[in-house]
């Protein structure tokens, strides 16, 4: 029993290893495939958005850029902490001797004797140095504020990337649905033309219609079959577009949920504009840019004032042998660096920063007007798109009834094949226009969501 139990445990362990190895080999592409398997191979709009926001390279790039900006804050704050270095120098020559050795300085690592020595020696210098910023009249706090503003801008760039990816994913999703519906329209057209050809051949065989009806029906059928080939190719192209929008390399789904049918959702234009002013990443990024420019002005103005630092050092030096037992040296002190004249660089820097701040403030007004215009256009497109759906639906119903009547007249032997083919073309075009109207409305909705800065 013990041997059997241990054999079973080893077998289960090997199975677990195989499973983990398979997951590791599949890698990043496993998550979308697993999601497809859990959904039974079907894809809905929410899943498509979730995949796009996780898998799209633009999202990953923007996220890493935001992370780099966050680390930049730590780089700026490092100036608040002491800076500690270890300096090690080695010299060889006749400028050093045990009798004429001079004390070493922190700046250069050591001084040499002005009088040469007959002895050629090795000279070693080791020193720990530390400096601490005491006060710089707001320059370092300004740099930290600049870094935080840069991070804020990167956050808004990330939000903008998510919104753009969501818009592309929704557009690709609706485009794929529209292509599938157009394919069904073309398949129905082929079926109708096949039935018409069969009816024309029957009439011709019994002598009720002329041969021209048969040739006309054949020409229409061949033309419809060519359109069917194009429609199938359009579906494949739409699938590739959707894959790219979702950031996928393979297509693991067997079907896509159709959500083209919509209902009107009345919304207040003023409320949409207010949401856009509060949410749009472009406006929020500009506000962070204003903070950056204000901090840049303070950093530039700090150039008029001195910088106070403290410093300390501990070290030792030796002749001939490294780390020899020699007396150590140390010091502590403070320093002030006062800029007396920099070629007016500080004055020009202050003027430049103030001009950039004024430009950013004016750019905010430009962005605000553009956002308002974009919301207006998207809102009007949604309204007109809804009206176009209603008109297209009525036109489709009329075309369907016209085709029914024309087909009935032809079957009764009182109509002509031209009436039927004209009715078929009108019905097919009306059906495609209705599909296009549904697609346009859904895309207009997606663009309106982006215009108001809907978060994802």
List keywords for this structure.
456 residues, 10 helices, 66% helix, elongated
Describe the structure.
- The protein has 456 residues and is of the alpha+beta class.
- The chain is 66% helix and 12% strand.
- It contains 10 helices and 6 strands, in the order ααβααββααβααββαα.
- It has a 4-stranded antiparallel β-sheet, with no helix packed on it. A two-stranded parallel ribbon has the order 1-4.
- Helix 7 crosses helix 9.
- The radius of gyration is 39 Å and the shape is elongated.
- The two termini are 57 Å apart.
What is shown here, in short?
By secondary structure, the protein is of the alpha+beta class. It has 10 helices and 6 strands, in the order ααβααββααβααββαα. It has a 4-stranded antiparallel beta sheet with strand order 2-3-5-6, with no helix packed on it.
How do the helices and strands line up, and which of them pair or pack?
Layout: H1 2-26, H2 30-38, E1 42-43, H3 45-55, H4 57-77, E2 83-93, E3 121-135, H5 139-205, H6 211-246, E4 255-256, H7 269-279, H8 281-301, E5 307-319, E6 328-337, H9 345-411, H10 417-451
């Amino acid at each position: 029993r013990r041997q059997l139990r241990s054999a079973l445990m080893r077998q289960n362990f090997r199975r677990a290893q195989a499973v983990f190895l398979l997951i590791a080999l599949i890698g990043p592409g496993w998550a979308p495939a697993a999601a497809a398997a859990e959904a039974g191979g079907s894809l809905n709009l929410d899943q498509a958005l979730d995949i796009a926001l996780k898998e799209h390279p633009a999202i990953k790039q923007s996220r890493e850029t935001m992370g780099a900006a966050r680390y930049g804050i730590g780089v700026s704050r490092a100036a608040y902490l002491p800076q500690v270095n270890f300096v090690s120098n080695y010299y060889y020559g006749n400028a050093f001797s045990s009798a004429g050795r001079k004390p070493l300085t922190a700046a250069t690592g050591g001084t040499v004797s002005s009088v040469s020595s007959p002895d050629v020696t090795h000279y070693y210098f080791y020193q720990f140095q530390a400096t601490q910023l005491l006060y710089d009249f707001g320059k370092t706090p300004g740099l930290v504020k600049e870094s935080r503003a840069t991070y804020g801008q990167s956050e808004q760039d990330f939000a903008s990337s998510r919104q753009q990816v969501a818009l592309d994913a929704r557009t690709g999703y609706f485009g794929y649905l529209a292509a599938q519906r157009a394919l069904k329209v073309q398949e129905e057209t082929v079926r109708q033309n096949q039935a018409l050809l069969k009816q024309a051949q029957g009439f011709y065989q019994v002598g009720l219609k002329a041969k021209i009806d048969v040739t006309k029906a054949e020409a229409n059928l061949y033309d419809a079959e060519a359109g069917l080939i194009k429609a199938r190719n359009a579906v494949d192209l739409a699938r590739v577009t959707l894959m790219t929008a979702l950031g996928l390399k393979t297509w693991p789904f067997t079907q896509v949920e159709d959500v083209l049918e919509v209902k009107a959702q009345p919304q207040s234009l003023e409320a949409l504009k207010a949401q856009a002013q509060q949410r749009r990443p472009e406006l929020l990024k500009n506000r962070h840019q204003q903070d950056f420019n204000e901090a840049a002005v303070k950093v530039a103005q700090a150039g008029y004032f001195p910088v106070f630092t403290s410093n300390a050092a501990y070290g030792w030096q030796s002749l001939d042998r490294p780390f020899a037992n020699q007396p150590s040296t140390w010091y502590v002190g403070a320093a002030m660096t006062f800029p007396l004249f920099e070629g007016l660089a500080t004055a020009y820097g202050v003027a430049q920063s103030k001009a950039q701040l004024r430009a950013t403030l004016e750019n905010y007004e430009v962005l605000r007007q553009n956002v308002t215009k974009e919301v207006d256009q998207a809102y009007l497109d949604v309204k007109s798109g809804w009206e176009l759906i209603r008109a297209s639906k009525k036109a489709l119903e009329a075309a369907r009834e016209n085709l029914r009547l024309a087909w009935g007249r032809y079957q009764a032997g009182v109509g002509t094949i031209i009436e039927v083919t004209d009715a078929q073309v009108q019905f097919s075009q009306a059906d495609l226009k209705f599909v296009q109207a549904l697609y346009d409305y859904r895309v207009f909705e997606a663009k309106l969501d982006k215009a108001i800065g809907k978060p994802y």
